[in-house]
Amino acid sequence: MKPKEKTVFLFPGQGAFDGAALRLAHARHPQVEHVLKEVDTVAEELFGQRISELLLEGEILDAATILRHPAWVSQLAIYASDMAAFSVLDAHGVRADAHVGHSLGEIAALVAAGAFSVADGARITAERARVIMEAGLGAGRMAALALPADQVRKIIDLVGDELLAVASENHPAQTVISGPARALERVVGIAGHIDAGAVELNSPFPFHNPVLEPLVPLFAQRIAPLVQRPLDVPVYSPILQRLYTDSDVLTECLSRHFVLPVNFAGAIRQLHAEEFRVFIESGALGALGKLVTRNVPRSEATVRSSFALDAKGELALDALLTGLEGITVPTVEEFWEAFGSRLVELVRAELTGEPSAPGPVSSPAPAAEQAAAPAAPAASAIPPYDEVASVVRTTYAEALEYPEEVFTEDVLLEAELGVDSVKQVELLARVTKHYGLPPREAGFRLASYDTFGKVVSLVHANLRGETALAG
Fold it and tell me: Measuring CA to CA, which residue among 389, 376, 379 is closest to residue 461?
């Protein structure tokens, strides 16, 4: 079943992984297990280890901690997450009119459209990482700058390193660059001098960069034997800036992705111009949905997440499915039980000319059920820590033009993210205003709250009427 308006499935790429959400989805939806088994066959063959063991057992990994493992782990984890979300949506009859992938996500977008099997998509993803690992060309990094692409290109020209490149244009005020670590640090430093935010991304390699040019033919050779099938759903490429066709040799196209930039902003604007209005993210965290709302008017885009956890720790996918599946049609017996007495009353009133008794159309619940109904929570209830963290994270991310996933509990706001004290005061004031908290007392020391987690603890403690400890 498709939503009424033209719908796009979005498949995220680098950094789009949430181990807690994946585990919850695995526990609730059998399709996740089926996808992981397919990916496991490739992981065992090429790397001697099942990906499911790392994702479902022991420490719960996130976009940052998964990078402690070999690079292939994060790449297969992102692909598996994208495909697992799609498989659940597909099993519930949710369909899209087009697919769009961001960088690595294009592999999942093509697989979901029928071009390759799930296992072959995992093989493409694994070989994509393996050729870089074997060649030792993965020493570079990627970073997001809160600047438009034309300004970023001027900074790159100023630095003068030919291996620096614009990797992705995400929206008019966010551009991703990739390149050698030292040169990238110089760009970030220049951005800081003009008060533009910059943050390193959770990517193991400098994708979409000329440094990977020598690997293009090797990658193409490795995945060339895979069987390509006709597309069941149109797939729009933010890299090629057009729809794929069945005449495209997809393995060659995917190989060129190593060095070609992503223009996600252009892709979303093009789809919006073609009357696409519903954007469903098939993957973790919901970052692409947020990018959509930065490229088109919020009033003209409905965005839904899948493998993301809300403030209460619930899976966004479950709420999404409930909303798309619509209202359950009752049986005749259920309908008569609920509305029969009222209908009889209305008919009697029509025949006799007497007014019917006032009241709701549905029959009131029995007294016993009314007594058992839980009381509504008090309006003054203190929100849980995770909910406060979600609000603060979104506030900081939107103000700084940073991806939400960089705001981990222990990240240093100034030392690691470059958020100076003036900006921190402004951000804290926004959160304080949001919750209606009183102004800070005299003697408040911002330096005591140097990490994101400490700021959240401060706000949560203030909401409880306590004094937060910097710890």
Answer: 389
